[in-house]
Amino acid sequence: MTSPATVTASPDALTSGAQIDLTNIHHGFFHRDTFVRAVWDLSLTINSGEIVSVVGPSGCGKTTLLGMISGLLKPRRGSVTVDGIEVTGPRRDIAYMQARDALMPWRSVRQNVELGLQVHGVRAKARKPKVDEWLERVGLSRFADSRITQLSQGMRQRVAIARTLVQEPRCILMDEPFAALDAQTRALQQQEFLKLWSEQGASVVFVTHDLPEAILLGDRVVLMSHRPGQIVQDMPIELDRPRKSEMQYGDERFLQYRRELTSQLRVEVDKAREAGVAP
Ligand SMILES: Nc1ncnc2c1ncn2[C@@H]1O[C@H](COP(=O)(O)OP(=O)(O)OP(=O)(O)O)[C@@H](O)[C@H]1O
């Protein structure tokens, strides 16, 4: 199920991405008296510095999968390791960017960006230069003291990205980070994220419902089955980097990946309906 190791970020990257190994992981939830299997017997390796996009029918267990990698959820069976060390709880080197930007409106831009460092006990003096650097990188230095409510949606997203990357994580987990953005802002944010990622070098697990986005960003696209989620396809995306948004309209290989994934996803969505597990 795994592709050969590929180090895809820039050789000058700030950090080296970690290898993430999921081995026969299982998780489920009780709905009243019934146990619902969310992810069942799933194994996957994310190689150092790779972006792996995860797609699948709604409710197939994608967020549950990220929860287990982040250490917020403990697999009922199986193991999650990062560079061979078992994940037993949240860690500073694993950053999790959840579906909504989850910024704190009562804190300034700067205070939001430094939040993760603060939580992990980094002192104010050490936080400041890192936060300044990332505000600069995402073009928000002038807004450091602004309130979150004064920002556009695209700017909010940049705050969320800075807050994630300032921790210099070796793994980044992203759950539909650009879903709330209009098409134009989304395309810009995708490009900005790819640029920052290539400079930084983390391994990324990127959950999305958007197949062109999955292909544009991913070194591989992993397709999950209907619930309980398992992997039914692990497709290497052999498009050169840097990748431009326009590829999704004119690049024949891109279109071919999209056609294949669309038809496989449709099969899984239909199976989910037949099995009565579509949300
Ligand atoms: N905290 C929870 N308590 C109970 N059931 C849950 C919980 N979290 C997830 N589930 C159930 O587990 C299954 C998988 O949910 P999950 O959110 O991981 O799917 P998903 O693929 O991320 O969905 P979507 O694409 O719609 O965001 C669903 O049936 C969901 O109802």
From TrEMBL:
Gene3D superfamilies: P-loop containing nucleotide triphosphate hydrolases
Xref: SUPFAM superfamilies: P-loop containing nucleoside triphosphate hydrolases
GO terms of molecular function: ATP binding; ATP hydrolysis activity
SMART domains documented for this protein: AAA
Residue span, ABC transporter domain: 20-251
CDD domains xref list: ABC_NrtD_SsuB_transporters
Keywords from the UniProt entry: ATP-binding, Nucleotide-binding, Transport
Nucleotide-binding recorded as keyword: yes
Listed name of the protein: ABC transporter ATP-binding protein
Taxonomic source organism: Aeromicrobium piscarium
